[in-house]
Task: structure prediction
Amino acid sequence: MNIHAFVHSRIRTSMQAGLVVVLCCFLAVVASCGRNVTVKNINIIPEPVSIEQRAGVYTLGSDANISFRGVGQNSFPVKYLMNSLRQGHIQPSLATSSEKSDIELILNDTVDSRLGDEGYVLDISAAGIRLSANTEQGLFYAYQTLVQILPSDIIEDSYSSISLPMCTIVDYPRYAWRGAHLDVCRHFFSVKFIKKYLDLMANYKLNRFHWHLTDDHGWRLPSEKYPLLNEIGSWRVDRDDQPWGKANPPKPGEEATYGGFYTKQEIADIIKYAAARGIEVIPEVELPGHCSAILAAYPHLSCDGGPYDIPLGPYWPPRAILCAGNDSTLLFINDILDEVMELFPSQYIHIGGDEAFKDNWKACPKCRHRMKEKHIHDVEHLQGWLMRQAADHLRDKGRIPIGWDESVDCGGLGFPAVIMAWRGLQQGYNAARAGYQVIFCPTEYCYLDYYQANPRFEPAAIGGLITLAKAYAFDPAPLGTNHRVAECIIGGQCNLWTEYINTPEHAEYMLLPRMLATSECMWSATQNKSWNHFRKKIEYQKTRLASKGYNFCEGSFTPLFRTAVVDDNTVNLTIETEVPNTYIFYTLDSTTPTQNSSVYIGPFNIKRGSRIKILPVFKDVPRDTVYEYIIK
Ligand code: ACM
Ligand code: ZN
Result:
């Protein structure tokens, strides 16, 4: 296979994380028939701790070579690099020990205390490109940064040489937990897509994949001890052609054909793929609520004996709950957690604990008996007791349980344990004060299933509105946060619930670009963040992501409208887009706006029922879409 065929087949077959792109660069360089390019600006997401850019460039030419110091052939950055090459039948040009190398990877033999476990230094000077770190993970992130310095069209174009700006980047993360969550229960996603998701995470230095594997709408873990979970609990009647909120009920005898579960081999494959990108996979098993799929398969684990169905659309309130008074439930939980621990080597296992409606417990003689036996006075604390049984089982095997923030209100998970704060920042602070380590993913900033732009111009979503600027405003510990609380915060993540998301393309659309905001909010110190700079960098990343085939939402340019009543017939209209340097041109006579139309300069009065047509123009370039709105 020749170099170009290799490069293009890589793009066609699957997106590969950064190192391949680096290699594509070398290969394109080797191709030597293309043009020369000089990179002028450095636009890295997440923003590094420090970038010192100097005058001058280092040019990678057709004789580019690589060397390694301190990292063995089996270390993960090197293996990653070598495997990528071998897959493409390419032998890298390795420098001999006496040769000067263009690119050098160095695992520090003396620890650089600034960098910790994930930091790195990337130095581009007259001597070449030098990547150094204390760990392999740090080296991997140095690569990811180097990839972002390369031209964004590197995998589409070929260059005979690439000149990179001389600079020194010193970088390390603000938080250890930089996560992204994916719900594969409401809609099922293939291994191929999950790998693409992991690639994306790795490109932006996210390191925890929270895999939401069980819920009312489907059970996605393989189980040998409870085979009906897969025969019954993993499948529902197919209503994928209907909107989530409007699914027709099942017909009598209709076969359940939508869904599936991951096999043991697929899970092992995903864990390995993630690990090769510095990502830990954290499985979630929902307890004790959100369990219709369990009860459809094993109704004896419920308070009332069932029967239970797997719901086809919205399921609220989610009344299905495992019976806390039934010893079979305790056995079931331990058995499932044992199976999970066999499959997943992660330090953390998530055991849910959110939105458990306990009406069934109140009415259940077995649950009431359990409360009496254990001197528990209300059903909330019965949930706490049940969750602690599961948490203790995990701790006994050396794992750390994670629970959603309701777990704190229920009497806690015991220690050590981590609380995931989703209902709001305050719930996270309460958990910290109760002594837990905390991961933040509040709905206000981190729920990427929410609308990201004016809902009237967007595909149906679950509700809410988290624009890119809003997602970027996420900070679990703003300056001035009590230091004892701040010390308990191990990080945060974005969550992608998939009720309204049933294709990989739509998932990408909801993730991008907001996932990049999560990345910068979790990696970069508050004082290194700047919305205007971040928004500029998004334009560069957009090109990069498009070249890798990702779907991307341009919602930052979509106008948002606010109206204030002036009188019965008139409102005062405010129009906003959140991108600096965007002008809004509009018409009120139904003609298509151009750059000769009226330009919006501030709120104005307008009659209800008027039709306004809007053209955003960014840096003198009209956007593709004209937005039409009838004033209410
Ligand atoms: C949640 O969104 N119910 C954790
Ligand atoms: Zn019960």
